[in-house]
């Protein structure tokens, strides 16, 4: 399958100005402009795990704090000092006391810019959608007074921007997002599945405790090691996973004939209903596997579609995720 499915007018690598107009590649200016959309913006404000992008605020975090919040079952990664031994003996199951306290919440963005993300059939590509989401989260964190950093990975490289609380650091993140995105071409070669786990390993070393970790990827290369790294991240941090997808990756056009280009060659693809049915089912099963494994370790999953505004998708999802 082609790595990027686009119309003739928006084919990556054919005409730079056309690519800009159809939002195939982000620009530094476009990512900086997202700071206006990030004002007052927060993710998961009503989630039990915490208000994830609200900065220095009363947050449900592990360990001792100022105000008692709840008594709940012990979970891997909980501080053993928070175990309520009386409740444990009475209920015959290990329970911990959870407190809230005023605490900084550093934000770490893990952003996929591999060639598998250079795929888009309308508004933009998955790679650009991930870059926009990361920029929004970065500006939001800065507005809240939190430190923000990023791990941006492609097929060959991993770029790390350590968390800092400054406009210059957010601009550096935006610059690296644009630079890594610009390396993507129709002839970029096969995506590297191993880089997903390599990036997650790096994230584990950076986000050692009480971070908000935002994952922006399509999870190409997801395997048992991915689950292990995600489990380690979630044991001491709050993690939000976004599953970036393009509708054409979930369902193929039937019988109408679609013009498809990889930036240099064009062809028409005809798909029967039976072939599309198998394709849709395969995509559904893969997406459900990814969501199921992440939710099993209490990581909320937000689907992000390339056809819609990232800002509107995040706003519409607030308070609705399970």
CATH superfamily of the largest domain: von Willebrand factor, type A domain
Query: How many individual helices?
Result: 10
Helices and strands: which structural class?
alpha/beta
Q: Evaluate the radius of gyration.
A: 21 Å
Fraction in beta strands:
15-25%
State the separation between the terminal residues, measured CA to CA: 33 Å
Widest beta sheet: strand line-up: 6-5-4-7-8-11
- Give the total of beta strands: 11
Order of helices and strands: HHEEHEEHEEHHEHEHEEHEH
- Give the fraction of residues assigned to helices: 25-40%
What is the correct CATH architecture of the largest domain?
Answer: 3-Layer(aba) Sandwich
How does the overall form come out from the CA principal axes? globular
Which regions have little confidence, pLDDT < 50, spanning 5+ residues? 1-22, 44-65
CATH fold category name of the largest domain: Rossmann fold
**For the record, what CATH class of the largest domain applies?**
Alpha Beta
Region (Disordered): 1-22
Domain DUF58: 70-279
């Amino acid at each position: 399958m082609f790595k990027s499915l686009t119309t003739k007018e928006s084919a990556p690598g054919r005409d730079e100005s056309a690519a800009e107009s159809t939002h195939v590649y982000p620009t530094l200016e476009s990512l900086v402009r997202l700071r206006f959309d990030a004002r007052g913006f927060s993710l998961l404000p009503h989630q039990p795990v915490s208000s994830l992008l609200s900065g220095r605020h009363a947050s449900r975090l592990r360990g001792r704090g100022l105000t008692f919040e709840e008594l709940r079952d012990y979970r891997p990664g909980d501080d053993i000092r928070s175990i309520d031994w009386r409740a444990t003996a009475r209920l015959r199951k290990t329970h911990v006391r959870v407190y809230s306290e005023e605490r900084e919440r550093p934000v770490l963005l893990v952003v996929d810019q591999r060639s598998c993300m250079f795929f888009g059939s309308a508004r933009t590509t998955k790679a650009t959608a991930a870059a926009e989401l990361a920029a929004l989260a970065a500006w939001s964190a800065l507005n809240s007074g939190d430190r923000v950093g990023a791990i941006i990975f492609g097929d060959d490289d991993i770029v790390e921007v350590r968390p800092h609380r400054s406009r210059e650091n957010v601009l550096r993140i935006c610059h690296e997002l644009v630079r890594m995105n610009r390396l993507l071409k129709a002839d970029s070669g096969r995506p590297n599945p191993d880089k997903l786990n390599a990036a997650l390993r790096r994230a584990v070393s950076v986000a050692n405790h009480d971070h908000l970790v935002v994952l922006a990827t399509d999870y190409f290369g997801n395997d048992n090691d991915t689950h292990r790294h995600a489990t380690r991240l979630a044991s001491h941090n709050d993690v939000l996973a976004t599953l970036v997808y393009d509708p054409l990756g979930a369902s193929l056009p039937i019988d109408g004939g679609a013009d498809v280009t990889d930036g240099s060659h064009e062809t028409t693809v005809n798909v029967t209903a039976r072939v599309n049915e198998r394709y849709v089912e395969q995509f559904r099963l893969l997406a459900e596997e990814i969501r199921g494994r992440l939710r099993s370790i209490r990581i909320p999953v937000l689907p992000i579609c390339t056809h819609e505004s990232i800002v509107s998708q995040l706003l519409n999802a607030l308070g609705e995720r399970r």
